[in-house]
Write a structure and sequence with these properties.
Length: 152
C-alpha cells in the first residue's frame, strides 16, 4: 500500500458517499486510476465495507458504557465460551482483548440504566467464569473519528 492508497482510504473515511469523481479530485488522480485503486483496495480486503454513522441518541441508545472484564481463570474452554457468548450480544459493539489487570474491554450501548442492569444481570452474569466487571459510563464525548492518522 502506498501513500496514494492511504489518501484514498482517508478521504473515504471522511465521506464514504463521495463519488469516484470527487474522490479522484481529492487525491489528485484522474477518475480511471482512482477507481482502479479503489477496486483493488476492496478486492484485497483493505476496504472491508461501507457503513452509516448514526446518532445513538436519536436511534434510542443514548447510554454508552465501557466495561472491563477479568476472567476467573484462563483455560481455553472458558475463553472460547466467553468470547462466543460476547459475540452473540447485540449490545456489545466492540470487544478487545487486553494486557494488564483486565482481560477484555467492551463497548456497550443501551437505552437506559435499567437496560444496563438487565444486560449485566441477564446477559453477562450467566456466561460464568467472570472474576470482575468494572463499568465506566460515558457522559460526554470530546473526540470521535473514524479517520486513521496519516502514515509516512
Amino acid at each position: 500500500m502506498d501513500q496514494k492508497d492511504r489518501q484514498i482510504i482517508r478521504a473515504l473515511q471522511r465521506n464514504g458517499r463521495a463519488t469516484n469523481l470527487e474522490l479522484a479530485e481529492q487525491v489528485n488522480l484522474s477518475p480511471s486510476p482512482c477507481l482502479r485503486r479503489l477496486r483493488l483496495l476492496e478486492e484485497r480486503g483493505v476496504i472491508r465495507g461501507y457503513s452509516a454513522e448514526v446518532d445513538a441518541k436519536a436511534y434510542g441508545l443514548p447510554v454508552t458504557v465501557f466495561i472491563r472484564i477479568r476472567l476467573e481463570r484462563h483455560s481455553g474452554e472458558l475463553i472460547e465460551q466467553f468470547e462466543s457468548r460476547i459475540k452473540a450480544l447485540d449490545e456489545v459493539l466492540e470487544c478487545h482483548l487486553l494486557t494488564g489487570p483486565a482481560d477484555y474491554f467492551l463497548k456497550v450501548m443501551v437505552a437506559d440504566l435499567e437496560a444496563y442492569e438487565d444486560f449485566i444481570r441477564n446477559r453477562i452474569h450467566p456466561i460464568g467464569g467472570i472474576g470482575s466487571i468494572d463499568s465506566s459510563f460515558v457522559y460526554g464525548t470530546v473526540k470521535k473519528t473514524g479517520v486513521y492518522p496519516a502514515v509516512d
